[in-house]
Each structure stands twice: as C-alpha cells, then as structure tokens.
Amino acid sequence: MNDVGADMTDTAITTSGLGKRYKRTWALQDCTLHLPTGRIAALVGPNGAGKTTLLHLAVGLLAPDAGSVRVFGQDPYGNTKALAEIGFVAQDNPLYRDFTARELITLGGKLNRNWDAALARTRLSDLGIAPDLAVGKLSGGQRAQVALALALAKRPRLLLLDEPIAALDPLARHEFMQALMGAVAETGTTVLLSSHLLADLERACDYLIVLQTSRVQLSGPVDDLLESHRTLIGPRTEADRIPGVAEVIRVSHTDRQSTLLARVDGTLPTDPAWTVREVTLEDLVLAYLAKADTRATRTAWEVKA
Amino acid sequence: MIWLTWRQHRKQVLYTAIALAVLAAVMLPTGLSMHHVFTDSGLAACLAKVPTTPVISANVNTCGLLSNEFQRQFNGMGFIAILFLILPVLVGLFYGAPLVAREVEHGTHRFVWTQGVSRRRWAATEFGLIGAVALVFATAYSLGVGWWSGPLISNGGRMGQFVFDFEGVVPIAYTLFAVALGVLVGAVSKKVLPAMGITLAGYAVVRVLIEVFARPRYQSPLTASFSVTSNDQFNTPDAWTYSQGIVNGAGKLVQPGAQMTCAGQSGGAGTCGDQLAQQGLGPAPFSNWEKYQPASRFWEFQGIETGIFLALTVILVCLAFRRVRGIS
C-alpha cells in the first residue's frame, strides 16, 4: 500500500458537513462522520431519517448539495475507480427479476474489472439457490442472498447495505446476517448497514451511527458509547448539575424519582442517593432518537426548549 | 454492457421481428397483386407517357379511367397505409419509454449504476443499441412500405399528407425521434405507464405542429393556371395542392375550390367568362388557378423533415443523458 496518509488508509468513509436537499427539504444535513476501516457499522434511525440518502451519497448515486463525502479518500460520485472498492446492496435488493442467478453473475463479470465469479457461485451453491431460475421466482431471503453474493463478488473494501433484511422473515434475517458476518470476517471488509430495527444488528455491529431528522445524533464504536453512558436513578430533581454527568440525554420523572440517561465523563457520580446502571444499546439509541424527536417538534412548533 | 442490453431486450426484439414478419406476410400478397394489376392493366405504361408539365391540353390522356379502376379495386389499401403511420410511435412507446423508467421503477438502476461501469457509458450503450435496433426496424419497415405502396403512390402521388409520412426516409427519423422522446420522458417521469402516455401525446403534438406549420414553408409553393376559355387541364395529381379555384382578371380568388372550363359549352368559349362577370365576380379574364408543391420536391421535403426530426432527436438524447446523471 502506498503512502497516502493515515487518515485515508484507516478511514473507510469520511464526510464533512455533508448535506443533500430535495427541493426545499434537507434529507441529510451537516453530517460529519469518520467510519474507520474494519468496522461493522449499524446506521440506525426511523424511516425518513436520511439513512438511504447517506448511503446513496457514499456510493455515488447522488451528488451532495453541501459538504463532501470521501470513500477511501476518493469522491465516489461518477467515479468508477471508487465504485470498484464499494459493494452496494440497495433497498429491497433490486435485481433484474427475469435474469437467472447464473446470468447475474455473468453480468457482474461484464460490468466489473475485478470480479470473483467463483466466490459468488460457491456462495449461492452452498445456500442451495437454483442457478437457472429467474431470480424473481426466488424467495425474498434467497434474493437477498443473491444480491449479497453479487456485492461480495466485487471483493469490495467497503460494503454498503440499505435495509437488507427489512423485508425478510425472522429466519431469513438470521441466515442473511450469518452469511454476511461469515463473509466479512474472512476479508476484513468494512460494512455499513442501515436498519430501522436495532435488534437485528445489536449482536453483529461494533460501530453505531444514529440518524434522526436528517442529522447525525450519535456515532462511535459501540464499546465506547456504552462505556460513556449510564442510567441514573435518584431523587426527583430538575437540576442538571449532578457531578460526573456531562450531558443529560433523556429524563423521565415519577412522583419521587427521576431516571436519567446521561453521558458521563470519567468520574461517575458518587452521591449515594443515585443508583448508577450500565446502559444497553437499545436504551441508548432510543434515548437519542427521543431527544432529537422532541427537539425537532419544538422547532416545528416554534417553542423554546 | 452490450451483453446486458441484449439480454434485457432480446425478447422485445424477437417479438418485434415476429410482428414485422406477420405484417410482411399480410402485405406481401396484397402488394404483389397491386403490382400485377398496376402493370397488367396498362396503368403503369400509361402513366409513364403522361407529360410532367403542370398544365396540359385536355386532349392528353391522363389515364383517368385506368386510374379510377385501379383505385376502385384497391380502395381499402389507402386506409391500411394510414395504419403504418402509428408504427414509429409504437417503437417509441415500447423501446424508448421503458428504457430508463423501468430501471427506476424496479430499482435496478441502483444495482447497475453501482457496478464498475459509469452511468454515462451505461446510457451511451443502452441508448445507442436501442437506437440502432430502432434504426434497423424502421429501415426495414420503410423499405417494405415503400415497395408495397409503390403502385398506390404512382397512381395518387407521394407529396400529400399521410403518404409523405410513411414513405421515404422520414419514417426512420420519426422512429428515432419517438424513441428519444420516450427515453427522455421515461427518465423524467420515472414511471413506465405515464411515460408511454406522455410520449404518445408528445409525439402526436410535435408531428402535427411540424406538419401543419413547418412543412408548408419548406419551399414557397408554385402556382399554375389556365384560362377558363382554354382547352387545358391541370396535370398535378401527384402534387400537394394547397388551394385552388377560379381567379378573376385582377388576380383575386373569387370561387375557391371550383374549376371550370367553357370548352364544349353552347354559345362558344367566351360565354362562361361572361356568366362569371355577370355574377359580379370581377373583371374578366377568368382562370383556373392552383397553388401546390410539385411531386419533384419530394426528396427535398423528405430531407428537410428528416433533418428537423434528427435534430430534435439529438436534443432529446442530450437532455436524457443529463437527466440520467440526476437520478438516484
């Protein structure tokens, strides 16, 4: 590998102030991210949060309206050289439905300079997928597997998957994730996959990006995020000044108690009135989504926070 | 890329070829019988002897009897020929409109545009190959229809609307235009069915506008006239006649659509001119008058019209290229 600077070799995706607008609405705004290589990152957020827009910008289907996006240091828009490094499975696994899996593998070979047809064939044969049946006649789960095999046959350094399992039944979801994890474990490929369902990704991912209302709410390695957040339960209080708490993400009150999800700095609160618990990934994501939601609603209603 | 385009459209090409073959099978016998009758009845030989000047003596045989007989026998054929008019737009609807729209509708553009081939190359190959297929079909169609309608044209002229439109090189330009229009509309609407509808309407509008407003102005029309008292007749059955009628001595068209000759009238050749003057139609002498585009300008008109539609095609293709860049 030639010397192109550390930030390019160990960052798969870098975005800076990235934004995309449809007519007057921003689908993605002020997005600054660094996805390190070798990670399996979950891009989480509700429908319409901008996940698809971010992925389309990263794979060069869209040109940004603001800021920039780089994949391994290259601008992906209209750049076939950058595209050669990226495997992409779009939402609903679009494939030419009247093509057979065998024909799709042939097609990939004609459209890509680097193409591991043997890899795709082996994967599909291991999964027992009929080679000469039109893929439109396969089950949803099998079609997703074909789409994944085609993306992997590019031998990409970055794999982008847009809601790959949203339309699948639980068994197919499990099988898909298993196939995905198995494939990338061998190659060290960086993965960014979006979902509005966290549960499916929780076990697989070691990096998290939370997107809500077209903005990045949270991003970082899962371990660090879990380490830096805590649930605090204590006497009912309105005060934000609790020693050790850097930021309160979400707060709920009962008559006598307050429950906070907070970002903490190194020193945890020592006040015995407060019970400190570790957070789960789900708590964390929900807290950040709820926070963004309230803020957005307040802005829309022009109410001061 | 070529493989992909072929694999995507091979069924369509096959069906089109079958449809053209069926059409040829129907047209071949009628065409042969028309050609036979045209020659065997002596109409062909007779027409060849008619002079080409726009006004000739009424004594010259313009093959009217044979011509009417031929027309009576193949009366329905002219209407079949009109059906040929819609074939170019069908190619636009079924090849052009779905080209981008179906990819977007099925989401497959996100698959094919994220492989190692640029969008520009994808568009160039798809547009180019489909354009080439359309060109081949349109040429075959044009040659076939040209042969089939030969006798009808020789007997009726090729400058008039409809006949001008399905013969020569213009059908090829129309077909390419229809395909390009379909591609652009499909790339803008991103839905196959609306794209087909808009393409159909757009094609019809452009064709009518060009035909009604532009084509009559490609060249200034010619005029021909002969005095009502003379023993002449018009000899422009194959021309595109704009208007005709009787003009008075001041050059004013006084009886649009009418034609009159005094030859053979009782009271001498001068009388019908006097009658017209008595009706208050102005000063004598009166003449039969015609404004027309002669058949000899057929290829010139074909060339101009082809040029216009090819230029429109180029513009539409460029716009479609630009549009494809903006789709995500």
Spans of chain B with pLDDT under 50 lasting ≥5 residues?
none
Kindly estimate the percentage of residues of chain B that lie in beta strands according to DSSP.
5-15%
Q: What is the strand arrangement across the widest sheet of chain A?
A: 5-6-7-3-8-9
Number of helices of chain A: 10
- Largest sheet of chain B, if any? 4 strands, antiparallel
Describe this structure in words.
The complex is a heterodimer of chains A (305) and B (328). Chain A has 305 residues and is α/β, with parallel strands linked by helices. Chain A contains 10 helices and 13 strands. In chain A, the strands form 3 sheets. A 6-stranded mixed beta sheet of chain A has the order 5-6-7-3-8-9, with helices on both faces. A 4-stranded antiparallel beta sheet of chain A has the order 11-12-10-13. In chain A, a hairpin with a 3-residue loop joins strand 11 (245-253) and strand 12. Chain B is an alpha+beta fold. Chain B is 63% helix and 9% strand. Chain B has helices spanning 2-40, 43-49, 64-73, 77-83, 87-106, 109-112, 119-148, 150-156, 163-166, 170-189, 192-214, 271-278, 298-326; strands at 55-57, 222-227, 232-234, 240-247, 253-256, 287-293. Chain B is elongated, with a radius of gyration of 26 Å. Chains A and B meet through helix 4 of A and helix 1 and helix 6 of B.
What key attributes describe this structure?
heterodimer, A: 305 residues, alpha/beta, Rossmann fold, 2 domains, 6-stranded mixed beta sheet, 13 strands, 30% strand, elongated, disordered N terminus, B: 328 residues, alpha+beta, 4-stranded antiparallel beta sheet, two-stranded antiparallel ribbon, 9% strand
Short description:
The complex is a heterodimer of chains A (305) and B (328). Chain A is built from ten helices and 13 strands.
Task: Please write out the topology.
The complex is a heterodimer of chains A (305) and B (328).
Chain A: H1 6-9, E1 11-22, E2 25-36, E3 40-44, H2 51-58, E4 66-71, H3 80-83, E5 86-89, H4 101-111, H5 117-126, H6 140-152, E6 158-162, H7 170-187, E7 190-195, H8 199-202, E8 207-212, E9 215-221, H9 222-227, E10 229-235, E11 245-253, E12 257-264, E13 275-278, H10 281-301
Helix pairs in contact in A: 4-5, 5-6, 6-7
Chain B: H1 2-40, H2 43-49, E1 55-57, H3 64-73, H4 77-83, H5 87-106, H6 109-112, H7 119-148, H8 150-156, H9 163-166, H10 170-189, H11 192-214, E2 222-227, E3 232-234, E4 240-247, E5 253-256, H12 271-278, E6 287-293, H13 298-326
Antiparallel strand pairs in B: 1-3, 2-6, 4-5, 4-6
